[in-house]
Prior knowledge:
Blueprint: H1 5-18, H2 30-58, H3 64-89, H4 95-111, H5 125-138
Amino acid sequence: MSRSFFAVLRDGxxxxxxxxxxxxxxxxxxxxxxxxxxxAISWTPGIAVLNAxxxxxxxxxxxxxxxLMLSLIMLSLPLQGLYWLGWRSRQRLxxxxxxxxxxxxxxxxxxxxxxxxxxxxxxEYMDLAIILRKALETLPPEEH
Length: 144
């Protein structure tokens, strides 16, 4: 089933908000992409407008179209990050991560923490983010 572009972007935003910022997950791609995407969301529009204004003001007329296209490409960078995060959030976990997910879920259930059901085809990265956040909040550090 295909999701719309805006649904994937929305999933990316939710996934970025759910993903924990912790040393336990520092080696995963999300821990690098989420901060870069957040910085791009805040800085890229200003840089793109500055680029367009400087191109308009100081470059010859032949350079106006490439300069404006560069500004549009800059504006697409945060969307690319959010889209990747949204796509990734719905991917099934690799076997090693699936094992870690199930371990954490079992430890949380023993502590009495309610865990939401996983995706229909198995745990997804969004499920891992939710379980990781709960585990980091409730479990002692040696049990992560």
